Amino acid sequence: MLHALICTDKPGHLQVRKDNRDAHLAHLRADPFAIQAGPLVDAAGEMSGSLIIFDTEDRTHVEAFVASDPYAKAGLFEDVRIEAWNRVIDR
């Protein structure tokens, strides 16, 4: 099963994202269940959130990932959603 982790940054927190980006990417690359990832961008093209797709049956794995994510620890996120996702098209 796939899970989407969708995180929205707090307004005005772009520098927090930039300051913690290297640690976040290391955390992300160490997770074998993270299969797709990238920043969400606002109308100005600036990073404003995160979208990560996990291939895991275990929602608690995604919850643990985000709880230990350097972005979350730095207080970057205004909103965090975890959604089970059913891929229909895979090209």
Please write out the topology.
Blueprint: E1 2-9, H1 14-29, E2 34-41, E3 47-55, H2 59-68, H3 70-73, E4 77-85
Antiparallel strand pairs: 1-3, 1-4, 2-3
Characterise the protein shown here:
With 91 residues, the protein is α+β, with helices and mostly antiparallel strands. The chain has helices spanning 14-29, 59-68, 70-73; strands at 2-9, 34-41, 47-55, 77-85. The radius of gyration is 13 Å and the shape is globular. The model has no long low-confidence stretch (mean pLDDT 97).
Strand content: 35-45%
Shape: globular
Largest sheet properties? 4 strands, antiparallel
Distance between the termini: 17 Å
Spatially, the strands of the biggest sheet line up as 2-3-1-4
Q: Short description, anyone?
A:
With 91 residues, this protein is of the alpha+beta class.
Quickly list its features.
alpha+beta; 4-stranded antiparallel sheet; single chain; 3 helices; 91 residues; 33% helix
